Fold this protein.
Amino acid sequence: MKVAVVGTGYVGLVTGTCFAEVGIDVTCIDIDVNKIENLKKGILPIYEPGLEEMVERNVAKGRLHFSTNIAESIIGAECAFIAVGTPPGEDGSADLKYVLGVARDIGKHMQDYLVVVTKSTVPVTTGDKVQAAVAEELAKRGSNIAFDVASNPEFLKEGAAIDDFLKPDRIVIGVSSPKAEEVLKKLYKPFIVNGHPIFSMDIRSAEMTKYAANSMLATKISFMNDIANLCEIVGADVNMVRKGIGSDTRIGTKFIYPGIGYGGSCFPKDVKALIKTAETNGYHMRVLKSVEDVNEAQKSVLYNKVMKHFGGNIKGKHFALWGLSFKPKTDDMREAPSLVIINQLLEQGATVTAYDPVAMEECKKHHLGDKIGYNDDQYNVLDGADALLIVTEWPEFRTPEWTKIGSKLKAKTIFDGRNVYDVNEMKEAGYDYYCIGIHTN
């Protein structure tokens, strides 16, 4: 079986590589010539554990190819996946220009029956727009080549994307014909032999499923952060509360860890897009609007603790940061809480030096440049700092050498945005320790 995947960002590259891993012939396509040339050399545009080795292995086996030529790449393919970006517009709606641009390119060049699959996260009714775009280009050619449009949303967690793809909780396909359903079920057969379910539905329901899933997870995060803030006020321990409610199988333990807000490429964008979709259709998503408001406010919680500790004046203070990416095991800094916190500190006249295992280059190139310092050692970054801020819960931060930390900081002060450490242990070690959802000072 042969498929084409248009777009070599996070979703497209993981999708294409994982299909190749189970023996499917895959061509990943992108208009960025440098990106394609780098991929041919084994240089990836993203960091994802295990992906680089998998790309190299499948290229060597002749199952994974990279190209800038969509016309050649879709010849003989049974499916063409659209996996390009859908950045949020100023009003929060998803920008579909890249998705529809690819749809038009497919219509211009397809030679045989093809299932055109939207893998990008797209609003409800996008399938209709893709259908119209392909049909319009075929009409311009005077061609009556048959095709189907389908929706196949991704449910990948950055940092665990390969496992999520190869061992999915579920596979969702939105189809409008038995033939498209047959093609997609054949494609996904290697992934469902171990009992992973595949749900076939109409296209609009599949499109909505993706937004509903991400919005539900974002809701759990914001709810728990709201509870954490109240816990601090009334003197409760959010960690105990979390355990108490997480044992209820109707709630579960996932996504109820308090922190400094969600970020990344999915939750912020998808919540905004679903709110906008509702507004466009005359409906107000009251719960999701509150989810968004809580999340934005939560990104300032750590900064507020810093300001309170230093009496409202941090001009001339120097802070060390552990963690830049929005979550561990990725270099993704889109909508990362670290960016909000750092900019707030800088605006008050403080200086910042950061350490992150993989995201420092991303931060320097695309976000903060030389506004802050960077250090490639998690302990040396502490030199001369008035306090340490923990922003991303990388595993290597869990059991640090406390003697080193204490000797390098000007004062034994830690602001922990991810509740990595035990409050009582920190107090016994002589630290001023601030975390989320527990009144400590």
